[in-house]
Amino acid sequence: MTHASLPLALTQGDPAGIGPDIAIAAWARRRENGVAPFIFIGDPDVVASRAALIGIPVNIETCNPADAVGLFDRAFPVLPLPVGFEVQAGQPHVGAAHATIKAIETAVALTVEGKTSAVVTNPIAKSVLYEAGFGFPGHTEFLADLALRLTGKQVTPVMMIAGPKVRVVPVTIHIPLKDVPAALTEELIVATCRIIDADLRQKFGIEAPRLAVAGLNPHAGEDGALGIEDRDVVHPATMRLRKDGIDAFGPLPADTMFHDAARRRYDVAVCMYHDQALIPAKALGFDDSVNVTLGLPFIRTSPDHGTAFGIAGQGIASETSLVAALKMAAEISLRSKVNT
Q1: For residue 333, how many C-alpha atoms fall within 13 Å in the half-sphere facing its CB?
Q2: Residue 264 annotated as binding?
Q3: Is position 259 annotated in a ligand binding site?
Q4: Is 235 annotated as a binding residue?
Q5: Which of 7, 116, 121, 221 could covalently link to 68 via disulfide, CB atoms 3.0 to 4.6 Å apart?
Q6: Which parts of 113-260 are beta strand (E)?
Q7: For the chain (length 340 residues), average pLDDT per consecutive 10?
Q8: Known binder of ligand: residue 291?
Q9: So where does substrate get bound (predicted)?
Q10: Annotated binding residue at 243?
């Protein structure tokens, strides 16, 4: 089967959050939004009850991935994975954690086996999963563990936020700001940039990616006057990368990297910590940015927002970011050399 004949594997996410809402909305407006066929991995009862709450008529059919593409035009295809109790919109429950995790495991296994073309994950509530004993900081680390289990290959996952105006990658992610300088090493920057360069070529079709590397300190440290990390860590990393033929340049003052003219000079901004990357990404594309995990042996995208329990089931959650994630996953799967 070709990628065009395979559905995307869309996980339910936390069933009490807006994952079911936006999946239903994306399917309902599939033609106007150009959404590629997907199979929803989750509880059909959750889909039915949520569709009734948000007032969107939906014809649900349970099926296997092989039948999803043929059904997609007339029905919302679901690979059934029951939660085990009646889910209340906006009311997360630790009892749903197993189904949330199982949906991710199933989506990855189906994609690695070549039965689906890519993984698209709806938002999870990490606090709920932690309460159930989930042993990973988040989606990204769990996906890397699944890749190891299913392929036997150790991978280093890299989080990229890709929007219509900018792509950003934080080198360090979910750690306190006070811990960033110690965690930031030349080797980490080099390894991260190598993965970015390889995946932009392979999955995004960019022949010669340009990587703008931000400095850690104000004004990129001013040659040590405002901190030595940029002089002693970031700059040597970019020099190594350039010797390897990777077009990485920096360290650059982060406060001048994100205006219109600056963004035209690079394909991705490599930032030193979480907010340095995600503040400009969300300011420039809050509703339509996509979380893409680089470095995996399969394709994974996700909406760049959380579970939004406060608006689940109210019919006001926007499916824009999920639609962008579905479209990006489909585009990458057609262009990419992975899973072939």
Answers
A1: 32
A2: no
A3: no
A4: no
A5: 7
A6: 119-120, 158-162, 167-170, 210-214, 247-252
A7: 76 97 97 95 97 96 96 97 94 95 97 97 93 87 93 93 96 92 97 97 95 96 92 98 97 97 98 97 91 95 93 95 96 70
A8: yes
A9: 139-140, 282, 291, 300
A10: no
